[in-house]
Give the backbone structure.
Amino acid sequence: MRLSFADEELETLYVEGRSGHNLPASVIGAFFYHLAAVVAAESADDLTRLQSLPLYALNGGQRIRLDEDWELAIAFDDREPRAFILDLVQNVLETA
């Protein structure tokens, strides 16, 4: 599957291995690990069958959990094998 990036910083991280994001090494490693699975897939359906890929739907989109605090927002093109890497989202837990 081909990748397209909506976030220039994430594209730079993927292509050049560096980014302006101040991310933990474990998140960067998970980013590359999970995107390798996306690239290897022929369709989004292939990814939903992978138990090792924490892919889930949220608010009409898809997310890949990178760790307890970070997720990758992603969308798929049904007409061609393409994934759109939208954003890196940090989960913020609200406290009362």
